[in-house]
Amino acid sequence: MKSFDTRTLSQRVYSHLTSEILSNRLAPGTHLHEAAIAASLNISRVPVREALRLLAAEGLVTIMPRRGAVVKALSPQEFLAAYQVREVLEALAIRLAVPRMSAEDLRTLRALHRQMVEFAERDDVDRYFRANAAFHGLLIERSGNRHLQDIYHRLMNQTRRYRMRSLYLRGGLRRSLSEHAAILEAVERRDAEAAARLLGEHIQVPQRILQASRGVELIEAIPSRSGERDRADQTSAAPPERLRG
User: Fold this and answer.
1) Residue 25 lies in a domain
2) pTM for the full predicted model
3) Which of 24, 38, 53, 134 could make an SS bond with 45 (beta carbons 3.0 to 4.6 A apart)?
4) CATH number reported for the structural domain that contains residue 98 in this entry
């Protein structure tokens, strides 16, 4: 019973730290000290240590001997490589998904695109990104390929923190909307090859801009959050109420 409780608490710490990292409240380069996190959450260091190991396995932190864990930052080369892998995964996913899409799935995609249009008009970037993630996520889910889904979700956890940089490279919300509209039309026609080509071109946009500009180093100059600076000098996450004693 004690082992079960420890695993459960580790998972809760893992979920909390994952949320802090993906939201950039714990920015790349932040040192995560076991003792400080455990004290802030009013728990022992054991579940914190296990949570950090899970985060390392997900590629979200790096554990260094005698230095502890650090929130992992994607290098410009890794950022570009992640987009290359994403392109392949999503093109395959949409080829598999199109024949499997139900009428309800198509209605959901259309509704999500309408939401994206609405949020873009309001310049509500956060809600736009949530609708965007749901749009892509439905296509991934309908692929029916569990291995593809697992790899995709891990990759997106590593890159989601850089969504503002991706948007900057893409040229803003309006261009993204038109690309999604074309993808949606191809899916509705049940043209899997056209949908895969359009989706691939959509994902290639940031890659081409990086490669055609001042090289991948350009990414370092783009803000990672809207209107906020990265806070790389933090040492622990703000504790959620549910973990406090």
Assistant:
1) yes
2) 0.73
3) 38
4) 1.20.120.530
Give the pLDDT confidence of 147-182 residue by residue, as tens digits. 999 999 989 988 877 776 667 666 678 888 999 999
What length is written for the chain? 245
Q: Are residues 6 and 122 in the same domain?
A: no
For residue 83, tell me if it sits in a domain.
yes
One domain for residues 101 and 173: yes
Q: Are residues 59 and 91 in the same domain?
A: no
Return left, alpha or beta for 242; rule: phi > 0 is left, psi -120 to 50 is alpha, else beta: alpha
Mean pLDDT of 90-117: 97
Q: What is the pLDDT of residue 216?
A: 47
Its sign, for the CA torsion 197, 201, 207, 209, is positive
Average of pLDDT values for 9-16? 90
Bridging pattern class, strands 68-71 and 31-32 = antiparallel
Q: Does pLDDT of 244 surpass 90? A: no
Q: Which amino acid is residue 72, in one-letter code?
A: K
Find the domain containing 33 and state its range: 2-73+228-243
Q: Which of 175, 162, 170 is nearest to 223 (CA)?
A: 162
* Tally of structural domains, the chain: 2
